[in-house]
Design a protein that fits this description.
Elements (H helix, E strand, L loop, with lengths): L1 H12 L8 H13 L3 H20 L5 H11 L13 H9 L1
Length: about 100
């Protein structure tokens, strides 16, 4: 399955593992989900998550990029960072 993933990413996006992007992984994950084969999709997502973890350990992508790839294949939104405010805090700032 990992070889198929590498081949598909090369054929569809002209990306080697070092060039993989979260968008490409998300597209691949959506394609897997569209096949309607839940068991295969779940197995593939698990395998690709393990592949990304292995590559992170080998420092092929950076840890941050590897985590982005994992979130993308799992169809998990990125964590919010930066100036995230509670609604109450935003109202206080607006009044000032």
């Amino acid at each position: 399955m990992a070889k198929k993933m590498v081949d598909e990413m090369w054929a569809g996006f002209r990306q080697s593992p070092a060039d993989w992007t979260p968008v490409a992984w998300q597209d691949f994950g959506q394609w897997l989900r569209s096949t309607g084969q839940a068991d295969m999709t779940e197995s593939a997502v698990t395998l690709l998550t393990q592949l990304a973890t292995m590559l992170i350990d080998e420092r092929t992508p950076t840890r941050d990029k590897g985590e982005q790839l994992i979130r993308a294949i799992q169809d998990d939104p990125a964590p919010q960072t930066g100036n995230v405010l509670s609604f109450k805090e935003a109202q206080k700032r607006k009044r000032r």
